[in-house]
Design goal:
14 helices; five-stranded mixed barrel; 30% helix; eight-stranded mixed sheet; binds magnesium ion; binds 4-amino-1,4-dioxobutan-2-aminium adenosine-5'-monophosphate
């Protein structure tokens, strides 16, 4: 076969150098035709669109062409020509074909169109080859890039926080332990407890639930940082919005207060959604057509409108007076459930909402305490269809107040002694938040299950692939 430089299908579809020979490589989506001619729809992941390969059956012979079926991978040299058919502008008249890999129609699982999302989850190793997941994962890439671009353009530093830690940042307790001890026969102390001093790190460790505590140390030196990495939560919540392994973006900014924090969160989300509309148009339009015809309107709405800001107490009042029957009763002091958050956003305000000043009992120890003695300077950003997309706060910068809260909660201060000490060494007001990357992806793609916006989801009872 003649050696030609490969042209990606996304580029080939834009060419108008008709009559010139080009090379494309990709996976066969479909093959149809008649006795004389075959039409192969070829996709290489560079775009949701396929390029049509036109094959003269006689030229290649039936037995050579037979294994070119759905899922097979081929290498094609051919003439770029203007397409006669509808729906595409160019096609390739095959001159030479090499078959890289066949895909036996009797066993290749992605035969017919329109598999259910549930079935595709079971074959997550192949689902990136579908239009839907190709679109979702291309958008995921562009969103990750946009996050780095947003912060880089604004002077934030990408700060790498550890994945293995000895602290429980959120105090949520839902952690995965990391150990090299023999679980069948762990060493024990005299009083019968597991002897972690003999473990790899000489102490008990776990996978991080958040990079925030270390992120704060970065902000107190570099001014403005962000983290962007995997976080792990062993909460046994089998919901369409929770993963055991999810990616989180956590900016942290010295000298910001809660209002600066809200401004940053709103600007950041709008930037990302606008970026998706500007750079992922084709894939978003496909997803809108297939799954959610209000998707693009919803994205535009968020970009174009100010988020509503109100306190938790005001939110509770609206919920109590709504006359709505909620599954979980709601009054001052209760943690808001998804149904409450979505009532405020979708029914009452019909707009993204930022709730602030939550009761301290339902929020983490590190949040700045308000003068009322009851609430803290927390903020949650609530989105249509999603509920909580961002959680954050201004941080408690006062050593005594922070220590009091740690004691009040009966927390073990030892694993976070270094965090508390920063309040003694040049403490300063600062604030930050965490954006759940997959929650953002749900919003931008219109998908409804978080398992469908990450290539290989980790959820209770599922760590396949
Ligand atoms: O509200 P969370 O627990 O806040 C923190 O972890 C803080 N340390 C953030 C900070 O202030 N730096 O989590 C932040 C966000 C949530 O709003 C949600 O979008 C997402 O992370 N999230 C999850 N996403 C998927 N699966 C889960 N199990 C999630 N838990 C939280
Ligand atoms: Mg939260």
């Amino acid at each position: 076969m003649k050696q030609l430089k490969r042209t990606k299908i996304s580029e080939a579809l834009k060419l108008n150098t008709f009559g010139k020979e080009i090379n494309v490589k990709g996976w066969v989506r479909t093959r149809r035709g008649n006795k004389n001619v075959s039409f192969v729809a070829l996709n290489d992941g560079s775009t949701i669109q396929n390029i049509q390969i036109v094959i003269d059956n006689e030229k290649f012979g039936e037995s050579f062409l037979k294994p070119i079926t759905t899922g097979a991978c081929i290498n094609v040299n051919g003439l770029l020509v203007e397409s006669q058919g509808q729906g595409q502008s160019v096609e390739i008249q095959a001159a030479e074909i090499e078959i890289f890999g066949t895909a036996d129609p009797a066993s290749y699982p992605l035969q017919k169109k329109g598999h259910s999302l549930e079935f595709l989850r079971e074959i997550a190793y192949l689902r990136p080859r579908t239009n839907t997941f190709g679109a979702v994962f291309r958008i995921r890439h562009h969103m990750a890039y946009a996050i780095h671009k947003y912060f880089n353009d604004r002077g934030f530093y990408y700060f790498h926080t550890p994945l293995i830690t000895a602290s429980d940042a959120e105090g949520a307790g839902a952690m995965f332990e990391v150990t090299t001890l023999d679980l069948n026969n762990p060493p024990r102390t005299e009083d019968g407890k597991i002897d972690y001093s003999q473990d790899f790190f000489g102490r008990q460790t776990n996978l991080t639930v958040s990079g925030q505590l270390e992120g704060e140390l970065g902000a107190m030196a570099l001014g403005a940082i962000y983290t962007f990495g995997p976080t792990f939560r062993a909460e046994n919540s089998n919901t369409p919005r929770h993963l055991a392994e999810f990616w989180m973006i956590e900016p942290e900014v010295a000298f910001n207060d809660i209002n600066d924090n809200m401004d940053l969160a709103e600007d950041f989300l709008k930037y990302l959604i606008r970026y998706a509309l500007d750079n992922c148009r084709e894939d978003i339009e496909f997803l809108a057509k297939m799954y959610d015809n209000e998707l693009i309107d919803r994205l535009n709405f968020v970009v174009d409108n100010n988020f509503i800001r109100l306190t938790y107490a005001e939110g509770i009042k609206i919920l109590e007076e709504s006359g709505e029957k909620f599954e979980f009763p709601v009054h001052w002091g209760t943690d808001l459930q998804s149904e409450h958050e979505r009532y405020l956003v979708e029914k009452h305000f019909k707009c993204p909402v930022i709730l602030t000043d939550y009761p301290k009992e339902i929020k983490s120890f590190y949040m700045k305490q308000n003068d009322d003695g009851k609430t803290v300077r927390a903020m949650d950003v609530l989105f249509p269809k999603i509920g909580e997309i961002i959680g954050g706060s201004e941080r408690e910068a006062d050593y005594d107040k922070l220590m009091n809260r740690v004691k009040e909660l009966g927390m073990n201060a030892e694993p976070i002694w270094w965090y508390i000490e920063t309040r003694k060494f040049g403490t300063a007001p600062h604030a930050g938040f965490g954006l759940g990357f997959e929650r953002l992806m749900l919003f931008v793609t219109g998908m409804t299950n978080i398992r469908d916006v990450i290539p290989f989801p980790r959820t209770p009872n599922n760590a396949e692939f």
